[in-house]
Write the structure tokens for this entry.
Amino acid sequence: MNFDKLISGFFIIFAMTLNFGFFYGDIATLEQHSKYELFAAIVINIIATTLKIGDKTQIGSVLLATSLVADIQLIAAATIWTIAYYTNALDVHSTAVIISLSGGALMANVTSVILYIGETLKSKR
Amino acid sequence: MNNNSLWLLLQKMRRPFIVIVVTYTIAIIGLISIGGISANGEPYHMTIFDAFYFITYTATTIGFGETPFEFTYPQRIWVSMSIYVTVIGWFYGIGSLISILQDKLLIQEIAKTRFEGQVKKINESFFIILGYNNVTKKIIGKVLSKGFRVVVIEKNRDRINELILENYSPHVPALEADIYDPNALELAGIKSKYCKGLVSLFEDDNLNLKIALTAKILNKTTTLAIKSTTDNHSENLKDIGVEIIENPFEIISQQIHMLLNAPTLYQLEKWIYRIGDLHSSSFTLPRGLYVICGYGRMGRGLHKILNQNNIEAEFIEIDNKLGEPLNVEGIKKVLTKNADDKDVLIDANIEEAVAIIAGTNDDTTNLSILATAKKISPHIVTIARENEMENLSLFEYANIHYIFMPSRLLIHKTINALIHPLSDRFIHLISAKNEMWARDLANELREIGANPSLFEMTIDEKHAYAITQRMKKGEKMYLDTLIRSRSNPKEKNSIKVLLLQREGKPYLLPQAVIDLKEGDQILFACSEDAVDDIEYIAQNIYELDYILKEQS
């Protein structure tokens, strides 16, 4: 068992599951989405990204790229949420933007996981 | 960015990042879960953003105070704990990030990448010069002034700083790397189509050979100027296919040979190297007994030349090992003693000698030998080897008849061979000529001036537009046209054509009636004004028309 692989696999999958948990629900109703889950998703995503820094392999670079995409989308979602909240502009429209941004990030997370699984299957050990 | 160490550095950044993220997260979670009381006395919970904002300025020790409302005691307890965690985490994280950014390896990698970019941006002819020292410094200055670019590889950081301080214009990119490293040579652009040559003039012959080999493997077509101090190495370099092999001691021996037989040739050579003019008439070295101090690489070269000229010589060498081979050959004894000693010089028949050559590799010894020799025999001809190139030369003040400076010879030879290939060829061709020939040529050149300029031209579209246009129409153009005076085409300008090279074949002192072909390279000796005239006639259609109409 490779401890490094365990850690990075854990964070990659955890990032996806958390993000899915946040994303799941009606796109127009903010009450169905927990801000704490979004916060957790951002933190775990950032950690997953960090774990990929400096990976020289081809697959490592692609994983880093997908993680970065997820980070950017999630942070954008959180920023829009914060601004809308403090300016009292939290309507259906901004809610839809927040949720769809996290949906996009979810796609990136899924890609990460697929790549990760593919790499694991490919290795003989 | 294919360097493994760089990736390792990036991997090292993971831990500080994660420490920051984790400590922040813990502190934020605590803040949003612990309840507070708002200004109106109502209970409230911090939003995620509030908590993030608070931690951001607290962990970085900026400390804007308690926002959005004054904290309750449970909140303050949590904040005091989290300050220790986050501030330490922040300092650790930032500290290691900065230390990684300051890592020597990383800085070197960045410098390398920047150097690579600078070299790639050069889109004019450039030379790669290995090592930065007094000799290459002079070469760089000269090469730059002739409109070429230079790239330098140097191992020593201090030397590179020296180069940077020199503030060359245009900029000279310098790489700190092992000189014989093929990667470094590649980074320096040896494979570039603009790379016109590589100069390697190190003391160490083996290093030079290694560099020549590597460079030839990387790019067969670049001109290499490599120093060699022994025949053995010169042979090796020739086998590899090195174009310019520079052996300063061989040059010195040849110059001594010239001075013995054809001093005017020596004068011409000095003039072509731009270190002397044709003004003064030259003296022959006397024939008779020579005393030569130092039987190293220079002494051996001199020995060969003096033998050729049937001149007797006494050798003095302090080093037993160097003195031996000659004793084995049994031609003449080498005194293995310190030449810097009056009695030893007297032993070597200094009183009967006509000339003394101080050729050791130590300048102080050389000066002192000659001073002693002059005291014993005031009319002796003194010849010195000057090793160190310094701004103020003691040799010039020591009243020495002939000073030979290997490093300066290298500079002139390199510059000539790289930038003025025709002049170099010319020197090579005339070295076989005799004194009569040289004197005739020198007299002709003196008519132009004491120090005529040298001008090289290639007959092609870029350098001789008007001429090539005419030739394309099928007209025959003659060398004669180029050397006409523009103010009076009926008369010849003060120009002497030294060499015409056609398809690699040299024509020494060609006749004016010779017809020109495209690709001809011509070497002119002429006055400054005449250079303009030649260029005008070659380039400008109307000037050429005028000359052709009026010349006969």
